[in-house]
Design brief:
10% strand; 2 domains; 5 helices
Length: 172
Amino acid sequence: MAMAKIGSKATYHRCLKGLDNWKYIHYMPSHNPYKGSQIKMLKFGTTSGTSTETTTGTSTEQVAEQALVPNININKHNKNNNKPKLPKNENEVLDFFKKQKWPAVEGKKFFNHYTSIGWKVGGKIKIVEWHSTAKNWMLKAEEIKKQKTVNELSQKRDNLKTIKNKDYGQPL
């Protein structure tokens, strides 16, 4: 199948039946999944020169057993290796946050947040490796802290440079 660039078993069997209909081969399908089908075909020899001898009688035939095609889909075979690696419990997350020198409160926030949304990113994509998601959580927490300090400073400042004690009796 690979050499003929045939991707499906149905196409493979259809091609064999077509060759049988055109009398290129004699295809005897086995409908048993554990036993291969049989194919009879002419044996083609290669010689370097021309031969003056003629063969009389029957032509030589070769009987071939069809190789069994495995019934395992290659794409689904390694499914168990790509299982999402999620934390077993909250303590595992807290230990990871302690190793990264982050407060336990952040670890609890992380665990509660992702547990509540089913360990998915954006509500759609399952988390494959939770350690990298936790590191991204830490980076975003730092960015949020920086934004808070900038916002607090800008709220304390008077950007319009107005006076707090206003005299409304004066004309503009």
